[in-house]
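STRUCTURE:
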């Protein structure tokens, strides 16, 4: 089964399933809802000489990633992911 089919089935069973998953994940992991590997992925795959040469580009890309990740996490905390509003107007419980 592909992801689209699975999502359609889950939406049919419970339209709030994604909100519930996000709420459970926040309870389990605390404030940060995105996977931790996202922070270091830019630095993991360079060989030694190439790492030195690409360090300025890698750092700039990391800063862009950081901004995007912080914005995405903030939206998830506010419960506004894919128009799945929190039960109240505030953040996830």
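SEQUENCE:
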């Amino acid at each position: 089964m592909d992801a689209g089919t699975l999502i359609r089935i889950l939406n049919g069973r419970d339209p709030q399933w994604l909100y519930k998953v996000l709420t459970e994940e926040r309870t389990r992991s605390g404030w940060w809802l995105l996977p931790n590997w996202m922070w270091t992925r830019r630095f993991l795959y360079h060989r030694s000489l190439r790492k030195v040469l690409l360090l300025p580009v890698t750092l700039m890309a990391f800063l862009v990633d950081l901004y995007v990740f912080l914005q995405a996490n903030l939206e998830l905390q506010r419960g506004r992911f894919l128009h799945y509003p929190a039960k109240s107007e505030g953040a996830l419980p």
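REMARK: The helical segments are 3-13, 17-29, 37-44, 48-78.
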